[in-house]
Amino acid sequence: MDTFTVILPAAGRSVRFGTGRSKLLESLGGEPVIRHAVRAFAGRRDVARVVVSTSMEDRETIEAAIDMPGDPRLFFCAGGETRAQSVRRALASVSADVPWVAVHDAARPLVSQALIDRTFAAAKQYGAAVPALPVTLTVKQATGPLPAKVERTLPRHTLWAMQTPQVMRRDALAAAFASCPIPLEQVTDDVQLLELAGHSVWLVEGEERNLKVTTQADLQLAAFHLASDLRR
User: Fold this and answer.
1) 3-state secondary structure at position 172
2) Could you tell me the pTM of the whole model?
3) DSSP secondary-structure letter at 43?
């Protein structure tokens, strides 16, 4: 069986959440948000390690929230100033004999096993895969800040909103970091690095419930989805 290491960047400041507290520690169904995200991967037979990249001052709090004491699959490393830097530091801790890495937002607590299955399978088939949802709103291109003149309307049938986990070969991601032609703070998702290095990336079907908790409204929506699951 091919084995995966899962990286969860968890060094953000949760500024848009607006409470002064990490959104990863907020309660969702009676458990911290980050515990849901870690548990989705830690119980899988094809996942050898889960690496949480977080600030060292927050490590004890995050570790307590995850609540997997002594589990050899769980590893912590220091996060960076940006998401890409946090992922790069976590990647450095991944053994060279692990063929695949998956990067998942620690603030996506409701990722399903079916979504993970199809993304892992597509990555093994094509080399890199990401779950995505179709963009349903009309998108205008303009140079902000607003007010700004519309430059063009983008054809939305060609646009897809990215989710996680983003899955790729470990060595391809490491090489893409080494050759990245732009500053890492301009990298907005993980497979963008592969695209910049000339690799193909394939999209698979995402899920509406696989939302990212950014605001308090997102947390309320996640709670609604979780309650709906429990009623089924």
Assistant:
1) helix
2) 0.95
3) T
pLDDT, one tens digit per residue, over 216-229 is 999 999 999 999 87
CA 3 remoteness from chain centre: 18
The owner of tokens 């989710």 is: 163
> Is 105 within 8 Å of 9 (Cβ atoms)?
yes
Q: Which H, E and C letters describe 55-75, residue by residue?
A: CHHHHHHHHHHHCCCCCCCEE
Identify the CATH number of the domain defined by range 4-231. 3.90.550.10
- Rg of the chain, C-alpha, whole Å: 18
Alpha-helical (H) ranges within 127-215 are 170-179, 190-196
What number is the average pLDDT over the span 51-60?
92
Alpha-carbon distance of 36 to 109, in angstroms, equals 5
Nearest residue to 93 via CA among 164, 173, 5:
5
The per-residue DSSP string of 93-139 comes to TS-TT--EEEE--TT-TT--HHHHHHHHHHHHHHSEEEEEEE--S-E
Locate the domains of the chain by residue range: 4-231
pLDDT in tens, 200-219: 999 999 999 999 999 999 99
- Measured between alpha carbons, how far is 95 from 167 in angstroms, rounded to an integer? 16
